[in-house]
Amino acid sequence: MSATRREFLQSSLAAGAAAGAVLAAPAIRGQEKAKRYRTALIGTGWWGMNILGEAVASNACEVVALCDVDESQLKAAAEKLGAKTSDQPKHYGDFRELLDKEKPEICIVATPDHWHPLVMIAAVKSGANVYVEKPIGHTIREGRAMIKAARDTGKTVQVGTHRRVSPHNVSGIEFLKSGKAGKVGMVRAFVHYGGNREQPRPNEETPRGLNWDMWCGPGPLRPYNPALHPKGFRQFLDYANGTLGDWGIHWMDQILMWTDEKFPKRISSVGGRYIKGPAVNGPQGQTSDAPDCQVAQFEFESFTAVWEHRQFAGNNAEKGENVGCYFYGTNGTFHQGWKDGWKFYPANANAQVQQEKSQLHAPDDQNIKELFADFLDAIKTKRRPVSDIEVAHRSTNMSLLGMLSLKLGRSLQWDGNKELVIGDDEANKLLARDYRKPWEYPT
């Protein structure tokens, strides 16, 4: 057995054992345990509350603080939390004040993407272990700074790529690694959802209780627009990286979970807004500006991976499999999916299709429970978590490189060891970006 496969199996078993231990614990409201970590949530929106819900359910976390720049979102989160625990967290609008006053042992970072690096780095430097959402950052060099901060402080940093521990994803990767699909020469990762032309939404006065300047933070200061907040930021390239940066990192991560290679050597991408229409950012209104469709190609040493997404026309032509990865092997085609689990279609048309159903949790069909259990076990045992910051950095890089190629309109030759684009000074300058003052880019 190779070292890489052995590490994969050990990490998968560790995650499963950790999840089993937490799932076995009684979930009694107000129950006291021998050790409860002082826990803070920074970014109290929809997904942050999904994560915090699992922290509370673990019986290992005392929620001491909630932080959000939007008071309405903060209030709603506090009310929701009150139904689950007797903890009385303090409320903050600035993460720096929270870290200084509360000294949490665990920080959950569920802000928009452009805030992940600064908050995570500040949290580990303050003494906290961190569960940070994916993608880890907006640019590649932010990720390298995040790894350095984690290693310098010795803190555990888990990234929310929960498909690393989803039971059907884990068994699917083992199916592929066992050779049952044969030699895989190509992977196609995809997300296909419906949609149509996008009309500009009028800019509005900033809602009362929302610190819009702080929301924009190190990114450009745009006029407030409800298309941006809440949730819509993922399709605005000042603050995120579109569908490839949002959805795509999950499937880039599955590709890297399967292969022994750590990065592609050449990347190219094309796409546009052929259906949504031109991007608008004016004094009267805004649209998103991320591509409504994109194809990216990643050339590895032993295979080619292709990403494709579209936000129109849906996907009724592939048995309802509108997200995931197709691994094309000499013995057949393997679909690593989401809600429907995985399926293997043998090359022999007379052979039976094999499949494994998913085991997902409400709300939103996810496996945060297992990933948070692994996080707690990694803190306790002082090991690297399954979705360690460096692992997720490589997956994030694939998405960011695809977006960089699209922006530049040319292919990139990538030195993954030095994390530089070979022979392309313009591209290397875009591995970072200028922050809006007074925020400083992390190094």
What is the CA–CA distance across the termini?
Answer: 38 Å
Total number of distinct structural domains: 2
The structure class reads alpha/beta
Assembly state here?
A: single chain
Name the helicity range: 25-40%
The coarse silhouette is: globular
Number of strands: 18
The number of helical runs is: 13
Largest sheet: 10 strands, mixed
CATH classification class of the largest domain: Alpha Beta
CATH architecture label of the largest domain: 2-Layer Sandwich
Q: Gyration radius, to the nearest Å?
A: 21 Å
How much of the sequence is in beta strands?
15-25%
Q: Kindly state the mean pLDDT as a whole number?
A: 93
Indicate the low-confidence ranges by residue numbers.
1-6, 19-33
CATH topology term of the largest domain: Dihydrodipicolinate Reductase, domain 2
Major beta sheet, strand line-up: 16-15-14-13-7-12-11-9-17-18
Query: In the CATH hierarchy, what is the superfamily of the largest domain?
Result: Dihydrodipicolinate Reductase, domain 2
